[in-house]
Amino acid sequence: MARKKIREYDSKRLLKEHFKRLCSRELPIKSAQVTESTDFNEVQLAQKEPWLSSCKLVVKPDMLFRKRGKSGLVALNLDLAQVATFVKERLGKEMGGCKGPITTFIVEPFIPHNEEFYLNIMSERLGCNINFSECGGIEIEENWDKVKTIYVPTGVSFTSEMCAPLVATLPLEVKGEIEEFIKSVFVSVACFFCWLLLVFAGFLLCLGAFRLPSLAFVCAVCGGLRALA
């Protein structure tokens, strides 16, 4: 299967678009892409994304390399002026695990939280592996023994019974909501992505007919768009 890595910004845009189209629900994803050509003083920037000047922000490189947090390349709880300084100090430099100058950043709203969940969906020729953990965040690799995995064969409906092992140890007050979220993401992802990794905050936001996890850090890494013939 041909695969094409894509930026976090693009993965979020695609996930939001197709989640709404396929599941009839709007994901609360807000993100802005920043490059060398971005003018932080430009009025149009604030007009296009008004939340940039009305809330605290998160900024990090969007360059398809891992472990940005451990490399000190994720800044939290900044205002727009501080984001501009952070970007300018790192733009065009080779830092962390980036093999080349950093040219692109992603900016998102900062939402304080105490826990994170991890969700990874990877498609194969005959089905999809779904990994889920209640211990998301930058230490996920060190806590891989806590990741639960199921396999969904191609052409088989992803039912609550199949999802049950992933959410078995979740508190009752969030189990049903996160199960519904995983199933909805699977429907959206299976059509376009060959793999998708999500890390989302562990508190809930009322959205549509059911409550969804707040997606402050959704698609922390995403790199598998299907190459369509």
TrEMBL record:
Keywords: Membrane, Transmembrane, Transmembrane helix
Transmembrane segments: 185-204
Gene3D superfamilies: 3.30.470.110
Pfam families for this protein: Citrate_synth_N
Signal peptide: none
Domain ATP-citrate synthase ATP-grasp: 2-187
Coiled-coil ranges from the UniProt annotation: none
InterPro entries named in the record: Citrate_synth_N
Name of protein: ATP-citrate synthase ATP-grasp domain-containing protein
Natural source organism: Acer yangbiense
Lineage, top ranks: Eukaryota, Viridiplantae, Streptophyta, Embryophyta, Tracheophyta
